[in-house]
Request: fold
Amino acid sequence: MAATNEHAAEPTRRDFIYIATGAVGAVGVASAVWPFISQMNPDKATIAAGVPVEVDLTPIPEGQSIKVFWRGKPIFIRHRTKEEISAAENVDVDTLKDPQPDSARVKKGDEQWLVVIGICTHLGCIPLVNEGPYHGWFCPCHGSVYDTSGRIRQGPAPLNLVVPPYSFESASKIIIGAESDSTPKA
Reply:
């Protein structure tokens, strides 16, 4: 009969190899699974796309437009002249393809500022500013013409340029993507 050494309390080299192999395996599984879990989160561009955009109106001279981006879409902000406002207000709404008064497209008390999504409602082109017979926007791709209120006047586009949700944070600052019925702060 052979003598056996049973020392259950002492770890053997084989125990160490089992533990080390298990630890390396666990790290390997975690390393393999992490990218799959991480890819389920939205990327930074997607998170930023829904964030409201703050725009300072101070540098925009009367009669000029700027383009900013919100949710990946171009937004045209136009500082309209008194003549442009008057022309937009004096249109017979019944003659329009998409009837909408100018007062429904601007904020009361801030009629000089027009904010629209700069995408033609026909096929999604980006129209040119201060172009066309109405001195609003003109889409050269298919000939849609918009007036100084962003309303469709000629061409194949079925609808007016869309007014995004926006609010005035102050008399010279707007926030696109956040709408409020409050009056501008002084």
The beta strands are 53-56, 65-70, 73-79, 113-117, 128-131, 136-139, 144-146, 152-154, 166-170, 173-176.
